[in-house]
Design goal:
The protein is α+β, with helices and mostly antiparallel strands. Helices cover 64% and strands 16% of the residues. The chain has four helices and six strands. The strands form two sheets. It has a three-stranded antiparallel beta sheet. A three-stranded mixed beta sheet has the order 2-6-3, with no helix packed on it. The longest helix is centred in the N-terminal third of the chain and has 49 residues. It is rod-shaped and about 170 Å long.
Length: 195
C-alpha cells in the first residue's frame, strides 16, 4: 500500500510537472505570437520609410512651388519697374503737348515788323529747346502727311475724296500732330484721309 501511495504521489508529481511544462510552452507560444518576427519588423520599418518618403516628397514639392512663385514675383516686379522707368516721362510729355501745339501755331503766323520778328525768333528758340528735350527723352513726332492711314497711330477726323494721283487711305492733311514715347503712342495724330 505504501508502494501504491508512493506510486500515486509520483504520478501526481509527474502530472503536475507535465501541466507546468504545458503551461510554459503555451506561454512561450503566446510570447512568440506577441513578439514580432524579423519579417514583421522589416515590413513595419518599410511602411514607416514609405510614409516618411511620401511626406518628404510633399514638402519638397511645396518648397519648389514656393520657390518658383517667388521667382515669378521677382520677375514680375522687375518688369513692372522696367516699364515704370521706360515710360516715366509719359505724364509730363502728355501735359506739355498742348504747349508745343501752341508754339507751332505761333510759328505759322507771318510777321513783318521788327518787334514781331524778334518775338517770333524767341518762340522759335523755345520750340527748338522743347523739341530737343523731346528728342532727348525719346519722344518723337508721328510723321503723317502723305503716309498711309494707320488706326494705331492716327485718328481720322475727316475723309475727302481722293484726287488724281492719290492713293486711297492716304493722309492728305494733319490737324494736330501725334507723338510717341519710345514705342507707345502718347497722342494719335488727328488727320484727314483721302478715300
Amino acid at each position: 500500500m505504501a508502494a501504491d501511495k508512493e506510486k500515486a504521489n509520483q504520478e501526481a508529481v509527474a502530472a503536475k510537472e507535465k501541466a507546468q511544462d504545458s503551461k510554459k510552452q503555451e506561454s512561450k507560444k503566446a510570447a512568440a505570437k506577441k513578439k514580432p518576427t524579423v519579417k514583421d519588423q522589416l515590413k513595419a520599418a518599410q511602411e514607416q520609410i514609405d510614409q516618411l518618403t511620401k511626406e518628404k516628397d510633399e514638402l519638397e514639392d511645396k518648397y519648389l512651388r514656393a520657390e518658383a512663385e517667388m521667382a515669378n514675383m521677382q520677375t514680375r516686379y522687375k518688369k513692372e519697374q522696367e516699364q515704370l522707368l521706360k515710360y516715366q516721362s509719359q505724364r509730363l510729355a502728355t501735359a506739355v503737348l498742348p504747349v508745343i501745339d501752341n508754339l507751332n501755331r505761333a510759328l505759322e503766323i507771318e510777321v513783318d515788323d521788327e518787334a514781331s520778328k524778334n518775338l517770333k525768333q524767341g518762340v522759335e528758340m523755345v520750340a527748338k529747346d522743347l523739341n530737343k528735350a523731346f528728342t532727348d527723352n525719346e519722344i518723337t513726332k508721328i510723321e503723317s502727311l502723305g503716309k498711309k492711314f494707320d488706326p494705331t497711330l492716327h485718328q481720322a477726323v475727316k475723309s475727302v475724296p481722293a484726287e488724281d494721283g492719290q492713293e486711297p487711305e492716304t493722309i492728305v492733311e494733319v490737324f494736330q500732330d501725334g507723338y510717341m514715347l519710345k514705342d507707345r503712342v502718347l497722342r494719335p495724330a488727328m488727320v484727314v484721309v483721302a478715300q
